[in-house]
Amino acid sequence: MISMETKSSLTFSGQVALVTGASQGIGEAIALDLAKEGWIVVLVDIQPEKLTAVAEKILRSGGRAEVRTADVSRFDQAAAVVEAVVKENQRLDYLVNNAGITRDNLMMRMREEDWDAVLAVNLKGVFNFCRAAVRPMVSRRFGRIVNISSVVGVMGNAGQANYSASKAGVIGLTKSLAREVAGRDVTANCVAPGYIATAMTESLPEAVKKAFLEMIPMKRMGTPQDVAQAVKFLLSDEASYITGQIIHVNGGMYT
Ligand code: NAP
User: Which residue from 97, 120, 182, 200 could staple onto 126, CB 3.0 to 4.6 Å apart?
Assistant: First the structure.
């Protein structure tokens, strides 16, 4: 674990937020945004190098960050990260399950390992971190969880049966968890992004990108910041009576 902090004009609240898949794209945008709240942001991803670069950005802007490497699909690693964070800070207030992968193919060509890999990271990874975080949140009678789903988790998408199933699963998991922990002031919600400009979508074939754009009434891709704003709202005091919900951030692509 690398811990970084600096003197700044930010007022630190002592609250702790953990963001998975924080090295780049949407996760990085969320982490940078949450650091501006004066929260300690725990950055989780597989590779330490990219995470450290994000932590340095937070440091330079006057925030605080901790870097912890873990494969979200590993139950033991998720448990160890959350345990260490709670031990170090005596709390975990906010959890954002953002790490995700794609292994696209038509169903008739989809390999078993591509199904397993996507479900392991996108769905079991969310289970692993929620499972680890819920007990300390319930004990302190406060917690805010946001799980990143996807527009294709509700509308489906040819070539993404594994990904769509994982993201639909995240919605079911989140709604169930919300009902279990609502009485302890722990909320769980989803943000479902549409077509967002990140490395994940950059690698799509040009024809697929064009087809996506034609489906968006706002005629543009979303930005990671568009998603981060919705996440920040669901973590805020203003959203304290909202649980088990999905906020769609998709330019009207699915209504
Ligand atoms: P991205 O740029 O590919 O970033 C995903 C991050 O997750 C990467 O830093 C990646 O690390 C990390 N990651 C992957 N597997 C991991 C694992 N097993 N353990 C820990 N970290 C892992 O993707 P993004 O576009 O920002 O997407 C972020 C989330 O939004 C994902 O859940 C995605 O499904 C969802 N989403 C994205 C879009 C979109 O249009 N971009 C739309 C809907 C939903 P490495 O790079 O080191 O593998």
Answer: 97
Residue 255 belongs to a domain = no
The CATH number of the domain holding residue 25 is 3.40.50.720
Of 235, 242, 228, which is closest to residue 27 (Cα–Cα)?
A: 228
Ligand 1 mean position, distance from CA 73 (Å): 13
Query: From the alpha carbon of 221, which atom of ligand 1 is closest?
Result: 40
Q: What is the pLDDT of residues 147-195, one digit of tens each?
A: 999 999 999 999 999 999 999 999 999 999 999 999 999 999 999 999 9
Q: Indicate the number of domains in the chain.
A: 1
195 is catalytic: no
- Boundaries of domain holding 51: 13-196+223-248
* Cβ of 27 below 6 Å from ligand 1: yes
**pLDDT at residue 9 greater than cutoff 80:** no
Task: Work out the mean pLDDT of the chain and round it to a whole number.
Answer: 96
